Amino acid sequence: MATDITGGTKRAALIEKAGEEVQGRSLWQDAQRRLFANKMAVASMIVLGIITLMAVFADVISPHAYDEVYWDYIGVGPQWENNHWFGTDANGRDLFIRTLYGARVSLMVGIVTTLVALIIGVTYGSIAGYFGGRVDSLMMRVVDVLYSMPLMFFIIILVVVFGRHIVLVFIAIGCVEWLTMARIVRGQTLSVKRKEYIEAARASGVSTPNIIRRHIIPNVIGPVIVFVTLMVPVVILVESFLSFLGLGVQEPMTSWGVLISEGAAQMENAPHMLIFPAVFLAVTLFCFNFIGDGLRDALDPKDR
Amino acid sequence: MPPVENAELLRVQDLKVHFPIRTGGIVFGQYTPLKAVDGVSFSLKAGETLGIVGESGCGKSTLGRGILQLIKPTDGKVVFLGNEMTSMAGEQLRAQRQHMQIVFQDPLASLNPRMTVGDIIAEPLTVFFPKMSVAERKAKVKALMAKVGLLPQMINRYPHEFSGGQCQRIGIARAMIVDPKMVICDEPVSALDVSIQAQIVNLLMDLQQEFGLSLLFISHDLSVVRHVSHRVMVLYLGKVMEIASRDSIYAEPLHPYTQALISAVPIPDPDLEKNKQRIVLGGDLPSPMNPPSGCVFRTRCPRATDICAQVVPKLEEKAPGHQVACHHWGPPAQALV
Amino acid sequence: MAAVLEVRDLQVRFATPDGEVSAVNGVSFDVNESECVGIVGESGSGKSQLFMAVMGLLAKNGRTLGSAKYRGTELVGMPVDKLNKIRGDKIAMIFQDSMTGLTPHLRIGRQMTEVLEEHKGMGGADARARALDMLNLVRIPEAARRLNQYPHELSGGMRQRVMIAMALLCEPELLIADEPTTALDVTVQAQILELMADLKRVTKAAVVLITHDLGTVAGLCDKVQVMYGGRFMETGDVRQIFYKPQHPYTKGLLSSMPRLTEDRRTTLYAIPGQPPNLQRLPAGCPFQERCEFVHQRCVDELPLLQEARPGQFKACHLESLEHPVDDPTRAAIPAEAMPPVIRDVRTA
């Protein structure tokens, strides 16, 4: 604390250091410290890190290719001697590597789509919130209209028109998720806008784009980060659902949704086909949610 | 106390700031103007401090923001350094802001919590002197930090690491960094502890003396205003009740409202305070949405008569340099303090 | 005179993620019958937490040590249901923010009769009549109509009157007023102060006035206790404290206030430095970092309250303020290492 500058016993030490710049501790650093003190969040980050690394280095870890068919092993359970650690699927392909390939797709969809939603949502929401009035009404009505469009209907139309493609899944989910993001950012902006430091910046002659960039966005980003971590699992779930319905990725590429869908069909004679991808999906979702909760507590300790 | 030069720095003419407030239902509702500031005129000389006093809802903060064009005035003129400000917009207006700065009431809330103290103080420099080198900027910030009583090595700290009084020093440094001619102080010490208030008041007065600043000192605390001001203006419901030099307004206030205000201030002196006869006004401040007809103060005024309800009293000079807006103006009937 | 409240070595601690904060560090005092005691202090002096602890209203992370007795009954550690029999009945409290003290969705009348039903077992018409009497006592115009209004329909000054009326409903023996006029405008504050001065004469309740405003204290109180860093710095009769302060902090506070009654000076006296950090209070005197008479003994040893003049106590090692000892161990810090504001005062 800077109150130490006149502090009795600390005086001597401080006089020695006089002139030397003291490094401050930003709110981000405070939040970081609190986040790393949260055991569940840290464990979740580690688990999520391991899953991500496994997905990235899938080909190195597993001796099998994701689309190679082993005719002798169709729908068999886990076995060590052939390195089919998770067994094989109904088409005789190695389930371990397919689960990791599924992780790639699911994580990528989750993260890329969320990033897209983040960029569009933050820009749109902060502009609407900062300008307010008619601009705000107009921009938010557009959001309302888009919101009222049913997601599944929208995706089926896209698939019918453009055919099945992974990019369509990104676009479709991104189109919907940025709306929520924009609403959240707008709400936060409205409250930050009334803070005195915004008025101070205006009085100092700071231009509007700079006010939004330097003063508004850094102060609304906290709740946004929390929302992002909680949005990733939602997106992964939506992708799984789409794939489960057969609207997602194209064979032989796979995702957790596709794997779970196939596994569900074989639930009675080959339960491992359902269990492994389902466990991965569940663990990942858990991790994201714990990290999100940890971030919320870390960024806004007063809320507890 | 620095001598006041005669050059007029700021002239405010019949300034009005009205906010449209929706009343009634959504379908048949209509907009009623909330007259936060309603026809205020005054002028400010270079190096002078004008104290603006009034209770909450009298429009004193809105007046400050209206002058700075942070809120667009509904009507009236603000002439600053010979330029009419109300018709300005965009770049032209932003350029004027270099010469008029503001210090806020809540020291911590007026500082962006995500920026370092150095960045906060330097921000006006980046706006008005974008070509200034980083090193030069930093040197200027450090020099000013030392001047306002902050240790320059704290430049990389964040606002939450400072106490309220220190945060107010940061706010003052931010206002002073571009060498403004006028600073509007909006309740700069109200949020501070008693022992810190004196530090900040002294700092503001020192800076004024050193840089020949003009101050608009907005406050509800009559004792502080008396200490810092050359002249004092009393507002009530968006209108000027009385404006005069500090000595005459405190020694012989001519408006009944000013008299009640002065008499209401608790004095830290048990013998005086326990025995004094307060002028206690009845009732509360009327709503600015629906102000009384005629004189806005008549509903609480001990001297009100029929004429007060019918005719709006004009602000007129009743003694040299002493303007009052009252039909029944006159010195107080009793000692006030 | 019998003591209504006896507080002995009361301490209040708060557990925070960044360590323990000591808000109150052992204070002892009595509040006697029909006496008005002013507790003066700045933010963080512990003045509010002291009485929150007495009333058992501390936040969850706070704990109270020591003793606080109401007429011989120990309040610290008393179970909530027993405490509720005393709170609102024998000891009542008025808060700074009248909006938090009143429930927004209940009519004024209902809130007042509820208190009477709870503590006095009064029913319907009787309770309502008593509530009306109290509203009249605090001079609320059109009192009968107010009973049917909701808190938000009243102005701030009116709500504060209702709060006072509610506090007086059960004829408490002790009334604790925490910054009762701080949120109000000057003219409304004058109304409330006038009312409180009148009520003091009418009711027999002892009053504790917690405030940072020395002006309010001067007008209402008989005794004053000045707090700093969770301790009493000086206690005494109101005239002693205001006219002959014995502690450098009290003296500094009084002289740092601009006054309507004095000629304008060019520079106000300012106590240097910042309010204390309760997480890291120094070992010796809590005021040492800001005191212009600081010497080695203040750093080493905590000064205890001692009688300076008859009835007036100070927690200070100085013999007297008129002739502060010129201790060679004084002034531990070279002037040029201090920020200019502090430097000015020290070298002046």
Structure report:
The complex is a heterotrimer of chains A (304), B (337) and C (348). Chain A is mostly helical and 304 residues long. Helix content of chain A is 70%, strand content 0%. In chain A, helix 5 (95-131) packs antiparallel against helix 10, helix 5 (95-131) crosses helix 11 (256-265) and helix 6 runs antiparallel to helix 8. Chain B has one domain: Rossmann fold, CATH 3.40.50. In chain B, the strands form 2 sheets. Chain B has an 8-stranded mixed sheet with strand order 6-7-8-3-9-10-12-11, sandwiched between helices. Chain C is an alpha/beta fold and 348 residues long. An 8-stranded mixed sheet of chain C has the order 6-7-8-3-9-10-12-11, with helices on both faces. Chain C has a 4-stranded antiparallel sheet with strand order 2-1-4-5, covered by helices on one side. Chain C is globular. Residues 326-348 of chain C have low confidence and may be disordered. The chains are: A mainly alpha (304), B alpha/beta (337), C alpha/beta (348). Chains in contact: A-B, A-C, B-C. Chains B and C meet through helix 5, helix 6, helix 7, helix 9 and helix 10 of B and helix 7, helix 8, helix 9, helix 10 and helix 11 of C. Chain B: It comes from Aerophototrophica crusticola. Chain B: Belongs to the ABC transporter superfamily. Chain B: GO terms for molecular function: ATP binding; ATP hydrolysis activity. Chain B: Residues 21-262 form the ABC transporter domain.
The CATH class of chain B is: Alpha Beta
What's the total count of β strands of chain B?
A: 12
Describe the oligomeric state of these chains in a short phrase: heterotrimer
Tally of helical runs of chain B = 11
Strand order of the largest sheet of chain C: 6-7-8-3-9-10-12-11
Strand content of chain C: 15-25%
Helix content of chain B: 25-40%
Largest contact between chains: B-C, 54 and 52 residues
Whole-angstrom Rg of chain C: 22 Å
| Low-pLDDT residue intervals, each spanning 5 or more residues of chain B | none
Strand order of the largest sheet of chain B: 6-7-8-3-9-10-12-11
Radius of gyration of chain B (CA) equals 21 Å
Mean pLDDT across the residues of chain C is 85
Q: Which architecture of chain B does the CATH hierarchy give at level 2? A: 3-Layer(aba) Sandwich
Keywords, please?
heterotrimer; A: 304 residues; mainly alpha; MetI-like fold; globular; disordered N terminus; B: 337 residues; alpha/beta; Rossmann fold; 8-stranded mixed β-sheet; 4-stranded antiparallel β-sheet; 12 strands; 31% helix
